[in-house]
Amino acid sequence: MNLVYGLFVGIVMGALIQRVGASSPRMILAALRLEDLTIIKFMATTIAVGTVVSYTMNLGMPMHFDIKPTYVIGVALGGLIFGAGFAIGGYCPGTCVVGIGEGRKDGWAALLGGVVGATVFTLVYTLIEEPLIKPMAYGKITWADVLHLPTIAVAVVMAAILLTAVRLLPTVRKAA
User: Fold this and answer.
1) pTM of the full predicted structure?
2) Is residue 80 within 8 Å of 96, Cβ to Cβ?
3) Mean pLDDT of all residues belonging to the chain
4) Where are the alpha helices (DSSP H) in the chain?
């Protein structure tokens, strides 16, 4: 059943990504330049709705959320590498797959770059663990743990913050 649910969510997300233009490197570049916030607002809405739906479903049908350990230095460095690749290639992992589905050949290059990057990370993990992973490692923490609140309450508050930002932010930046 979980695989069917995952397939359904994947198909819906792919359709939505394509519908809002998030598979277009031009749209992604406009979002990164803060010229067109359509993709940013779409992702904030997706995160808000997905978080509340997931944690609400978890109340009646317990799920296993695999919380990854928090390690600040490694995540910051990885974020810089990912962000550079995102800006240069114009794709993230989900949007390149949708781009491939649309027939965009550059989507294949982005997908290959992601696979190569993940492979390199896996191969060098033991070398970088001591200097990049272990310092400032805080383990598997969540906002609910830090705030000592039920996860559903944190999910609802986070969703409200994100949806308020979506409502208040303009979609397209006004010309100077």
Assistant:
1) 0.79
2) no
3) 89
4) 2-20, 25-32, 38-60, 72-89, 93-101, 105-128, 143-147, 151-168
